[in-house]
Amino acid sequence: MKHLLKLLDLSKEEIIEILNLADQLKYENKNGIEHKVLAGKTLGMIFQKSSTRTRVSFETGMYQLGGQALFLSNRDLQIGRGEPVQDTARVLSRYLDGIMIRTFEQKEVEDLAEYGSIPVINGLTDFCHPCQVLADLMTIREHKGRLDGLKLCYIGDGNNMANSLIVGGLKVGMTVAIACPDDYAPDSKVLEFAKEYGDKYIQTPDILAAAKDADVIYTDVWTSMGEEAETEKRKIAFAGYQVNDEVMAAAKPDAMVQHCLPAHREEEITAKVFEEHADEIFDEAENRLHAQKAVMVKVMK
Ligand code: CP
Ligand code: NVA
After folding, report:
1. Distances 190 to 88, 154, 159, 295 between C-alpha atoms, Å
2. Which fold, 7-129+288-300?
C-alpha cells in the first residue's frame, strides 16, 4: 500500500490488515509498550478545513511512533494563495516522509499523490473520509467481535461519510442500508461500486426500513464543512432523518450507535440516544488514533 486516497483503492485483505495492526498498536499503547517504528520521519498535515480529531490523533500518533508531525494550515501555506498542488507536492516530497491532507476536492488528494513521491493519506475530502471509516470498522469489530454478516444502517446525508461507509462496509462483508432523501444520494461512483454487491446494498428514504434489524446505526451532520450556506435548506430536507428511540427500536436490541463527530444534538441524533451510546461513540473517536497509526506504519515504514 503506497497511499490511502480512498477505500475504493483497497482490497478487503488490505483493510483487514490495517484493522489487525490497529488492534495490536492499541494493545501496545494501553500496555505501555513503545513502538517507535517511524523514528526520524516527518509527516506534513495540510488542513484546508477545521479539525479536532484528525489533527490531534495524527499528531499524537506520529509522536507515539517516534516521528514528528507538522501542522500546515492553508492560511499559512502558499497553496492558500494559489500555488499549484502539483508544485506543492514536488516541494514537500523533498522535505517530508508523508503527507496527510484534508481538503475539498478529491482530485487535489489524487494530484498530490501523482505529482509527489511520498505517501499521501486522505484526512477527509468532500468525496470520502477513509481514516474515519477504518476507525469505525475497528470499533464495530471490537464491540461485535466480527464484521462479516452484520447490518450497518446509515441515516442522513449521502455525503463523504456515507460514501466511505458503503465502500468499507460492503468490502468487509456487511450489508449496508442507507436512508437518505432522494436529492441527497451518495456519489454515483460509489453507487456503481455498490451494484456489484446486489441486495447487500439497500437505499431507501424510509429510515425505519433501513434501520430494521440493524447491528449498527450510524449518522452524520446534515450540513458538512463547506456547505454552510445551505444550512437552512438542509434543515428542511433532512427533517425526520434522525437517530432517535423509534429508530433504535427498529434495530436489533443490542444495536450500537456510531457518529464520526462533531454531533448536532436534536438534528441528526437525539441527545438521549447520543448519551445512551456515548461509550461506543467515544471509543470510535479514540480509535482514530490507533487506526491512523496503523495506516502511517503501512504507508511510511
Ligand atoms: N470525525 C472527524 O474527522 O473529526 P474532525 O473534523 O474533528 O477531525
Ligand atoms: N460530513 C462531515 C464529516 C466531518 C468529520 C463533514 O465533511 O463536515
Report:
1. 29, 15, 11, 22
2. Rossmann fold (3.40.50)
